[in-house]
Records
---
Amino acid sequence: MNDPSQPPLFLDDAISVPLARSFQKVSLWLVGGVGAATAGMLLVFAVATQSGADAERIAGSQGDGLKGLISAIAATHGRPGAL
């Protein structure tokens, strides 16, 4: 017949090491700060990459003078999602 009692490996009183509340707050702030910094750097990189491509395109069309600049601005602002 099987013995229904728990083996001695399991203890009735669980032993846990409580983390200090300040340590929990600091770790959450660090994780949040690293995540926010990463998101900020990705945003800056994305804007810089797009701005660089736009600047090269506009510089290439400057041979036409004012007409080239106006057409470049119209092309930039005519894209979906442009501000």
Note: The chain is about 65% helix and 0% strand.
---
Amino acid sequence: MDWIKQNRFLAGFLGIVGLGVLAFGALFYLSWKSYKASDLSYKREANVLSNLERQDIFPNDENLRAVTAAVADYEAAALELQAEAATHQQPLKEGLTEPEFREQMNVLSEAVNAAAQQGGLSLPDDFALGMESYKAGASINSHAIPLLEWEMQAINRLVTHAIDTGITAIDHHRRDPFAQEQPDWKPEGSDDEDRDDDRFDDDGGDRLDSENPMSTASGVLSTFRCELTLAASYESLQSFLNAIAADDEYFMWPRRFRIENTIKSSPLESDLDKPQQLQGAEEGVLADAQILFGNEQIVANLLIDFVRFEDPAADSSAAGDNGEDEDEA
């Protein structure tokens, strides 16, 4: 302490130098740490860049030309398939008026109910091919009439397959209305177009399936969904599924399929027929086994999409018209 008192200037100078050394050391340590982190990040990014440059996906001119050609080939193949699929579907009746649709709806629903009764198929009360609300007098959006007529014919085709394949009953049928049926729906491109395309239930409730996996495919196809519960034997249900899969007028796509056997227990011995003489065998040889599998009475719940492919020519024309409008603007 005496030395500091006697050499105040030198002590102060040495103190300042010491603090400077400590501060410099701290700054050096922080700078070195930052440098090591930056160096590590640089080397990591350099490795990533080096790996990308050695891959075919690197965005250079050669790879861009290859990707562009591949996308063009895929688009051409998709349009060709879309055009081919469109030739196997029933055309829309664009000029159909509401009175004509209602008359056709009444005639067709009466005919299908009569055919079902004659063919032994039980249908829900007041069944009208999914158009029950319209048959009861609900108003119809004019934009929806061609699609409603097409879907009504598709449901009629579905019920016809059920009659032909020996389905016992359709205990429940419900269709998922599409966007054009909403009163405030407007055609695409109009100034006040309603862009909320969420489907709604026929009685104002939620749609049948809140997550439609085909909702992103609207530029290629549209799906029209219905739900039905069938009572059938194993053979008739199998025949029904084969019939809708092979239909040459409508694309019917089962999206969900759940079955339940109404007969849950094995038959009692008293329920079986008495053994009979086995045909072609020696006297006294009896047929004491009966077929159990295939005699089930099944309840099946199906969710089916009627698929309608968009016309690629119409899409191209619309795109061309939009391009011309943009050029004029």
Note: Helices lie at 2-6, 8-53, 61-86, 98-119, 132-135, 145-164, 234-245, 312-328.
